[in-house]
Queue: 2 jobs
Job 1
Amino acid sequence: MRHYNDIFKKTDFLWGSATAAYQCEGAWNEDGKGLSEWDWFNHTSKKNINNTDGDIAADFYHHYKQDIDQLVIGHQNTYRMSISWSRIMPDGIGKINTKGLHFYDKVIDYYISKGVEPNISLFHYDLPLTLSEQGGWLNLKLSDYFANYARICFKHFGDRVKLWATINEPHYYSYCTNIVGNYPPSRHLDFQSYFQYQYNLMLASAKAVSEFRKLHIDGKIGVVHDNGNIELANNTKEKSKVREIADLFYNRMILCPALLGELPKEMESVMKLFNVDLYREKNDQEIIKSGKVDFLGLNLYNRQLVTDWHKGETNVFHNNKGEKSATREGIRIKHLFETAYDKNIKRNPWGREENPRVMYTALKEIDKRYQHPMIMITENGVGEYETPDKNGFVEDDERIRITNKFLKYMLKAKSEGVNVRGYYHWSTMDLYSWINGYEKRYGLVRVDFDNNLKRIPKKSFSWYRNFIETYEKE
Ligand code: BGP
């Protein structure tokens, strides 16, 4: 029998990489899997900007052994993945698809047999389509449906899986689905739905945590948040106002319930500024209180640099087309705040800052403000356009250079007492990117999507292996 306590007897730190079901599995309609919202979106919706889909993706469904073997060669001792809800329950509720359970049994057992610790997220964006048709995360029943699905997973895999996360990025998911509109169901600048999504997702997370506790699962459970550490541009006039509103907007709807078991104190007053009236029920506070997580998963790519609103209507700026567009990421919220742009910081082709120092600042701030939580860096990585040489090899020196800095900053925070216990590079191999499909690559291993999905480790793969080895020797 495996025990959680044994994990950190072998090593004081977990090193691995991450994927998500829709982005890597493929097999979108195999072995009884139901449709997810993303299957529908990418097949049918005119709002699918990438003009591609995850039908095959990296076909992890049929290549999982090869991918796991490769990860082991890279000295990684953990792997983060997600379960596709509609593979386990085709309609999200009701009938269970045993073939779906069996697929994840095979994957998990193979990892464990190789000494790799699985870290499993229950939800990474791919909502069963049937539930989406019933109002998605605005439907008040959804948190119960999610808790039910979570309980099924805990009961089935809980003897083997020791690290769990309820939901991947409740904030960023709510942002893309309701403000940007580049994720289904593609609402645009809908702040009411944006906040209600976050609220309902955190209720769902809390209910799943309660199920986990009721079953006395031996393990730890977390939620995964996209770091949106607030920094103010130098010329910001109303410093405390901008900081408070932006922090609530990007972080505190998630971090307060997850780490403190309470809603943010400033929630009511900030909701008024957005003209949002959240639907809540009487015993929600109790649910949130009992849904505190054991650890915070932090997906760390960048910060939020903000300042006072200057002029202009509320709008959002998002680049889904890389070099084909000059747009930089950001938002302007009339009368409240707006994104600031620092000319001195390099940006990637998708208009996002490359700023590894944020790793240190964010870890220190969360540690200080949220009672020294256990943290796992559940994602961090570098998206690039990539051209291999004639043998298919990619010399991804930029990825190495930037990741090296991120890691040094992470280890600096750790050495100063931050309780960070693991790091997962995004991503294990090339896969489908929600932004820019297969043109934007993140993998440590190249996948040749035009040639039988051949796997070829990149230069960063060996670099990461050496980094882990050096850390372990020291
Ligand atoms: C995170 C998601 C991942 C992954 C990553 C890179 O927000 O959790 O699923 O996709 O971002 O983002 P993208 O592929 O959109 O560049």
Note: The two ends are 31 Å apart (CA to CA).
Job 2
Amino acid sequence: MADPTGFLDHERVEQPKRPRDERARDWREVYADLDPEERNRQVRVQATRCMDCGIPFCHSGGAGCPLGNLIPEWNDLVRRGEWEQASERLHATNNFPEFTGKLCPAPCESACVLAISPASGGAVAIKRVEETIASQAWESGYARPERAAAATGKKVAVVGSGPAGLAAAQQLTRAGHEVTVFERDDRLGGLLRYGIPEFKMEKKVLDRRLAQLREEGTTFVTGCEVGVDLTVEELRERYDAVVLAVGALRGRDDTATPGRELAGVHLAMDYLVPANRFCEGDGPAEIDAAGRHVVIIGGGDTGADCYGTATRQGALSVTQLDQYPQPPSTRDDDRSPWPTWPYLLRTYPVHEERGERLFAVAVKRFLGDEEGRVRGIELQKVRVEKDPGTGRRQVVPTSEEVEEVPADLVLLAIGFEGVEHMRLLDDLGLKLTGRGTLSCGTDWQTDAPGVFVCGDAHRGASLIVWAIAEGRSAAHAVDSCLTGSSDLPAPVHPT
Ligand code: SF4
């Protein structure tokens, strides 16, 4: 039984970070390495704040956790110091809680009943509890490989090794299928490997989970582009089902702004991938922010990843631009209806380190030097509104005044347009939707029989928690298709 008044006795306390000057100079995770005993003591106090609500909004797929994480249950187990049981309940709904604990923006916390009023001291620190359960599980050996009780004799190919592909692969392997994951890159993990910077999640965390999947029986093939290195005919011949988890990595560009063609203006992923490869030991990054004035266009997660990376590479200045006005940072001055996510200001640890953020601004044009390199940008104050005729979003200048800002490296982090072009899709006869994604029926099956889809490739660029939820749900559908029924969970349905 939870302590219903625990939140009155204890304040929410954020996870302690390393000193900002120290962490801004290295690539290690930003959070402090607490002694596990002290870490667990602090987190037990945080879990005590959970009221075990009759209707736990944190847990529901509507506003809270898409995975249906059993948050009140494991909060209470942590409160009582029952770490192994807490790990069992956490892993019952989430294959990779250490990934979500480090990377998810936590819709569960915004949906928490205690987030309604600042007087309650803020949401339960669910993410921190989740990550600590996962850390404790690895440290104590609770995160064991789970081998299937019996083999089904069916073979499944998973294309893509990001979070959706890995979740689908683990579920299907544990259900007894022979699963092979194909990755076109030289290393596994997709965005987890080459999109997420080391300071947000050290890659040893990913490698540890990959080792678990291998021990359970999942096979991995890297450096293989399905459709090219393995034809669709070969794929069809060798596998009973195929899961497409190829992501939605086609970056949105800004070709309409004059000067886009200047050297030094790049898409965010063209910058982040080599920077992450550097951390893997692949040598200097091709695009380096050292000694440069860096301007990042786009106020989201990818922009923040560029921001922290540029800081660590030694940029002279880092500025992040957002077209939207600065949102309120607390519910005190927020007038939107509860739950508020994502309307409050999201500040990442990298924003505390250095640099600045500018809101309600847009680039009028990129300025170049005589050699065709970007040297600055012209900024204008704007507002974002809906075009009354088309209903589409439009950006309107609110002033004729223009401010010039120095910039010799500009990174476009303005979103993703969908699945990249790949021969595999052509050869399967699959077409992209108007949103650049792959559609499917209610059973996650695409128009190509026996070919399923999940994650960003289906949903469009989204949160890691949705990728895992879709991977788990697609695994249920594949298992049902291959065996006639499935005991695997299906936390979400196709959109
Ligand atoms: Fe606990 Fe908040 Fe979930 Fe209620 S909504 S059960 S207080 S975490």
Note: Residues 464-483 form the longest helix (20 residues).
